[in-house]
Amino acid sequence: MKTILVLFLLVSITLSAPLLFTKAFAQTAIDGFSAERATAERRWEEQFRAIPDPKSAREHLRRLTIEPHIAGTKEDYNTAVYVRDQLRSYGLSADLKEYEVWLNYPNAPTVLELITTRRQPLSVKEAPVPGDPSSSHPKISPLFNGYSASGDVTGPVVYANYGLPNDYEDLKKAGVDVKGKIVIVRYGNSFRGVKAKVAEQNGAIGCIIYSDPEDDGYMQGDVFPKGPWRPVASGQRGSVQFLFDYPGDPLTPGKPAIAGTPRLKPEEATDLTRIPVQPIAYDVARTILSQLKGPLRPRGFQGGLPFAYHVGGTNDVKLRLKTDMDYKLRTIWNVVARIDGNEEKDRWVVLGNHRDAWVFGAVDPNSGSSAMLEVGHGFGELLKQGWKPRRTIILCSWDAEEYGLIGSTEWAEEMADELRQKAVAYLNLDAAVSGPHFGASSVPSLWKLMRGATRDIKDPKTGKSVYQQWQDRSRENRPEGDQDMREARIASLGSGSDYTPFLQHLGIASTDMGFNGDYGVYHSAYDSFYWMDHFGDPGFTYHVAAAQLWGTLAMRLADADGLPFDYTDYAHQIREFFTEAMRLARIRNLASSLDDKAMTSAVDDFAREAERVEKDRQEAVRKGDRAELTKINDALVQAERQFIDAKGLRGRAWYKHQIYAPGIYTGYAAQPLTDFRQAIDDRNSANAKEALERIVDSIKRVTRTLKSAADKTD
Ligand SMILES: [Zn+2]
């Protein structure tokens, strides 16, 4: 799975410092390295960046996408072995790591019937497409949702737009109740698990999710195989786990799914829906929606099918939905490879990408897996040439991400104590390439690292740096009136990929990124090697750029004398989040009961301390003061951990980060200052007050940790 990145990644950064370096200097200086060490680092990095190769990346992708490889299948296991053996062939130590987790496959294709004056069976399969040879592969699964319940339900159909709370409000206003009925909703605007949850909460007995051509089909452009967009007979598979409650194996929340861990009964798991949920293609949706009567669509409900949508709900148009799921404990396989650090073995830089796919997964996720193998390729070569990374680097190929970030979550839960002590950062790459446009999300302390590294990677298409391409495009897309935008925005981490357990459960600084483009075949049988070879990255040069960038980020974190974390950006970002939240609180008449002074003063202290540590770090790097650097580095790494509140978020204790988490209804998107924002949305001033106090406490802990770097121990 993967966030569909919002294209308007813009912000006006008025606080960024003026450019300090001349161009010539900027080419040799690397943040966190003394002048002398930067020269050596740059040489190693250049040697590294020369290794990733388009032919080799193409071959990895071809091999990984030969067969559908859903988590827990023999074909998935084959991809794990391929990744392990490739990494070993590059000279890295790599091993499989297994977990037993609760997964479903369809026992038989879903039965879907439209019942009007007659019964009309509807397809839940994707049709082969002429030209793409893999689209007729016999092992392509019928359309289904991960963690749908089994069931056999019949009822009137209601069209509920995106299936979010305000859509049900609109239906109520139109006099349509969904209780005892089957809702049909379109993909988009939130994670599909949210749609299942909200349908269930509103009393629906079944939920159909379809891909409207307005969102990723012909309204966007030519459809596959003529273009990159979704063809009529294509649907979107995907998990409907309640990811916002907790990710990972549904039966072992907070614990690793290994022998000896007590398991919940499936009916005790709070992150599973109890109703059948089924995805369909838009030709099938057309058959259903075109029959609906009842009120004409409310504002915002019309999609791209060529008739006026009605919301239905009448007794003369019904659906029968019968899902039959085979649920079992199944084995999944992570691959973990490790390069031991030469001087700080117990400081880990962790890179992760998932490998399992709903079908072939050429973009999602295997463009990232191919990039990971090329990173391994590059590191293997450097090691042969005598490179000794200061800190340990761990490469992880996750399994069962598509069902709910399972491989990464189980590993993070198993390794929790060690990770809390040792992890420097987690660098995620999911769908690495679907086009040429770079986008990134990260904690603010790593913004400068991200921007710095993108300056050193060449954009294959324009020949400029990736940074420049990213800037140019952001400026083109900037909203009117935003004249003082200085840098492309790095977005907030919400959920929908494997950084979630690292950042939001354990408090490990994390990043996510990718090269994006026109991509309408998400989670379908057409996200194939053919699609990538014709539309996504025909020369495989962006796979190479992704590997170069990912490896460069890892090398800087692994080799730096003074870790390139800058918390001043974090303080500014929290201040912006708070200003925005207070604006909403005022609109809702909640502001008077909130102690904004305590928050403002906590953020001021944080900003001041962050600035001081940053100065000390620069100076210690210059002086090469090793004892001082160790103290500063430890504080910088541990500071992120202090955003973790052991109690967790309200009603969902697995999520513990006080600044970043997905909102309950936002799905993939982050809802910064999560509990505070939720309480404001709920107009609950007592909860808002309590949430803000916890946020203030966490900021104070961060500040204290940064201060500890200045304490004289000698
Ligand atoms: Zn993915």
Description:
- The protein is α/β, with parallel strands linked by helices and 714 residues long.
- The chain has 22 helices and 16 strands.
- The strands form three sheets. Strands 1-11-13-12-14-16-15 form a seven-stranded mixed sheet, with helices on both faces. It has a seven-stranded mixed sheet with strand order 3-2-10-5-6-7-9.
- Strand 5, helix 5 and strand 6 form a beta-alpha-beta unit.
- It is globular, with a radius of gyration of 25 Å.
- The site of zinc ion has 8 residues, from helix 9 and strand 14.
Summarize the structure.
The protein is an alpha/beta fold and 714 residues long.
- Rg estimate, integer Å: 25 Å
List all distinct small molecules, including ions and cofactors, that are bound in this structure: zinc ion
The mean pLDDT is 94
Which structural class is indicated by helix and strand composition?
alpha/beta
Overall form: globular
Largest sheet strand order: 1-11-13-12-14-16-15
